[in-house]
Write a structure and sequence with these properties.
Layout: E1 7-11, H1 19-34, E2 38-42, H2 46-52, E3 55-59, E4 63-68, H3 69-73, H4 76-81, H5 88-98, H6 109-116
Parallel strand pairs: 1-2
Antiparallel strand pairs: 3-4
């Protein structure tokens, strides 16, 4: 970080962190991103991806999908193909959609609060 790179690559940086350290770390990464840095976060933690990633690339032997995070969570078939367990809130929204109700895929508790209103 002392060399001020434009691109920061993080491989599973949140593994094993408690919630307090996780929130501090992710807030710091968000600040760097807002300052113009590109953050590449490699993670199986879909909660972190849902809350912080604007773009998501799903990979299994090659790129299966490269899109906005919300669009990726609209495709549980792609996540399943990559052996990725969808984020709990996105999974619940997709289950409701399967039942015939037109609800958006919500990624954060804040979005759920606004939707329920």
């Amino acid at each position: 970080m002392s060399m001020e790179p434009d691109i920061i690559v993080l491989d599973e940086p949140t593994t094993g962190q408690d919630r307090g350290h996780l929130n501090k770390f992710l807030a710091q990464m968000k600040m760097l991103n807002e300052a113009g840095k590109t953050i590449i976060l490699i993670s199986h933690g879909m909660g972190v991806v849902a809350e912080y990633a604007s773009r998501t690339i799903v990979i299994k032997g090659g790129i299966l999908m490269d899109a906005g995070t919300r669009e990726v969570f609209l495709r549980p078939d792609i996540l399943e193909e990559a052996s990725i367990e969808p984020h709990l809130l996105a999974r619940a929204c997709n289950d409701v959609r399967k039942g015939g109700r037109d609800v958006p895929v919500l990624l954060t508790v804040g979005e759920l609060e606004r939707y329920v209103g």
